[in-house]
Amino acid sequence: LSLNDYGYTGAGIKVAVVDTGIDSTHTEFDGKTIYGYDFANSSSGYGADENGHGSHVASIIAGDRDGSGMRGVAYDATLYDYKVDNDGDIGLEALSTDSQIAAVFNRHVTDNINVSNNSWGGSTRVNAVTTSWVTTNYSATIAAAKAAQANGTLIVFAAGNNGAGYVGADQPSLSAALPYHDSDLAGAWLVVGAVDSNKKETNYTDRCGVAYDFCVVAPGGGDNQATDGILAAQANGTYVRLSGTSMAAPHVAGIAAALMEKFPSLTPAQIATRIKTTASYDGIS
User: For a tag on the chain, would you pick the N or C end, based on fewer CB atoms within 10 A?
Assistant: First the structure.
């Protein structure tokens, strides 16, 4: 948190949280106007979160610095709730098809988003399918993601949580590591794995694998989330400890927002490079 201790807090930077929603009534978002779009046509609309996952992620990015609860990495960033869940379960109904995912990234252009946090993905490993298959089945997604990047968006993705005992856990998910199949996406894209409070890669985290050129790790909570999870907002107005690469990604998204405020002349790709080149291997195992 030394970056925002020196006055860089993400002020003026728009961060989209592609997730289950953001509970705008939680005290961690007091005084904030949360913008957004309800891609899932939920009954409550954006600014509400029936699941809690999105609120947890959003507060890691931009929870208030008010001396209570917790503190976001870029607590003055402007949040955009890109709600992709319509019923509070574990499924994200608005990310089921190529055209649906493309619609989300196209909205980044409409709203001039600076940082996109994506703490979602599937069980398909990035190297389990061919590039030809990906470019055929995700052509709209790839085009929309490129359009968002060209408009000034840095895309941050959670690597996935299939580490322990899962075949292929040395590779991130397909969604997270899409630039492996289209290198034009790689510059302004970061895949994020998880380390615990001792800076050790967790058992659950997917590794960087073939995405090593655009991959970092960040605090995601330990394997025992009850004792070493990341404490952040829960949608019911309380707080909860959770562990996952879903928690690691918003740490990086928050850092990116603070850096964008500090270095407004840098492109998203240059911000990503700054994060990668200043990351340390110290303690990682």
Answer: C
pTM > 0.85: yes
User: Cα(240)–Cα(174) distance, rounded to whole angstroms?
Assistant: 29
Summary mean pLDDT of the chain? 94
Give the 3-state secondary structure of residue 254: helix
Convert the pLDDT of each residue in 35-47 to its tens digit.
Answer: 999 999 999 999 9
Query: What DSSP assignment string belongs to 4-33?
Result: HHTT---TT-EEEEEES---TTSGGGTTPP
| Contact predicate 254/2, CB 8 Å | no
Separation of alpha carbons 111 and 266, rounded Å:
20
Q: What is the pLDDT of residue 40?
A: 97
Three-state DSSP state, 41:
coil
Amino acid 177: pLDDT: 98
Q: What is the DSSP string of 128-161?
A: GS-HHHHHHHSHHHHHHHHHHHHTTPEEEEE--S
Q: Provide the residue type at 84 as one letter.
A: V
